[in-house]
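Fold it.
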Amino acid sequence: MKARRKNQITAVQRSTVGYCRVSTEEQATSGVSLAAQEARIGAYCAAMGLEGVSIVSERGASAKSLERPVLRELLGRVRAGEVGTVVVLKLDRLTRSVRDLADLLDLFAKYDVALVSVCEHLDTSSAAGRLVLNVMATVGQWERETCAERTATALAHKRRQSEVYGSTPFGYRREAATLIPEPSEQLALREAIRMDRGGASFREIAAMLTKRGVQPKRGKAWWASSVRAMLRSRIVLESAAA
């Protein structure tokens, strides 16, 4: 009887925690502010009659990794048995990785913690909710990886066609949307490539370019880091291999 009462007290004491996150880019462009997330989560918890609710927020943090200070603290509370439910506005506020989501679901299941996503209407306290959550996360990752592949293919095509994307690389000038080899820079570039293949250091190549009086595309002087960036750019690598 005493053990049962102790378990009941522990269950009552477990809290509901709302987790909010914005990255620096999202703060500037998407309008998904911390205040908006906190308000939506608070309204949801009130409507569901959840008690003992606290909301924690992560500012300027990417969802690519679980290594975030506020999230680490929250997971520590989960492991300590203090949390019964974690509420997020959207699943991507918590993670964008299928592998990380699987790890989180395993951890939450181990400590009997429900994960709730307000916008997706998901609640892992049920088997159906866990299934839908895993399917959604898998599809989301597939979409991101497919988009990355399309982008890589498009950029590779642009490089093959000498079309401009991003900044103009050393050795070229820009004419409308096309990259045109710049003769004086091409001579220096070929010498830099020859030295690099011969085992010269980036510092030595920078000294050569400085001695030639060749100006970098950005900045006023050559440094080892700028030489490395120049020689390791995809356009330079592909043109050198051609």
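The two ends are 80 Å apart (CA to CA).
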